[in-house]
Design goal:
five-stranded parallel sheet, 366 residues, Rossmann fold
Amino acid sequence: MKYLDEFRDPDLAKRLLDDIHQLTTRPWAIMEVCGGQTHSIIRNGIDQLLPDQIELIHGPGCPVCVTPLEMIDKALAIAAQPRVIFCSFGDMLRVPGSQKDLFRIKSEGGDVRIVYSPLDALKIAQDNPEQEVVFFGIGFETTAPANAMAVFQAKQKNISNFSMLVSHVLVPPAIMAIMDSPTSRVQGFLAAGHVCSVMGYWEYGPLVEKYQIPIVVTGFEPLDVLEGIRKIVQQLESGRHEVENAYQRAVTLEGNKPAQQMLTNVFEVSDRTWRGIGQIPQSGWRLNDSYRDYDAETRFSVGNINTKESDLCRSGEVLQGMIKPNECPAFGKECTPRKPLGATMVSNEGACAAYYQYGRFREMSG
């Protein structure tokens, strides 16, 4: 399949690995921001094929994982109300709140539905004018344009029984928070290609200059990831710090301008709480004044819900790259995919789920 098989070629992968081994003379710590890249790395054993001097640190790039516990509880409170149809992508239904998850709400009689697009939720609102339809809008810049479009169309079509619970987060402020942390060991970043396909990579230039670190935009297939690592190691070994695009088949410097315009029309930048990390200033979006009537948090008066993270779950440290998933004492014991303590064990992009699925804890304990 074009753009899949050709980026999984084992011979080309070996050549890239040979190049990385030849280039590497010193220890380097590189963070992949995206959870999709984390799963590609663990599934293909890329981290185990690299030189011993290179450490890959798993970053907070899983949108489900960084959705704060209090936002999950707000979703649960809304979904449990009568005359509400609560719509979400499927991976959110198993994310644990402080007491239960959306699957439990559904089993107790709540009308919780899996949709594949926010526009599906908008159609449900059109078809059910006597009920309130709420879409759970989470994610990074990748999913935000479609969510913005749904709210935009709701206003254009005067669909008043539609609203959105918004929990959008932004990548550049997260990179700043990681680099500003006194515990940060990151010396270079693999930037998420799908985010950059929307936003471009012009935002990363100031970060490169401020922190003197290389940032390389890359994709998610094995050869994409290896090429991104190779470019970062080249820069680190030569003392350079630049933004490079290793995902030119999907990403341009400017990004998708119409999508960016839709985001500007509907959202405004705001402070946002990240699960396990805390509040990062100006790191998210919320609906702006023109679309505030479609804000489910306000419509259902759930803004005052605050909750406490599990004492056992160390997903916050995983998301910040401070520990590997199998270094959490609860990993594979109290916390498994069947009974997760945190979202990093639930999501398809979660680092803990990747380590569990591909048996990394068994290797460590054996």
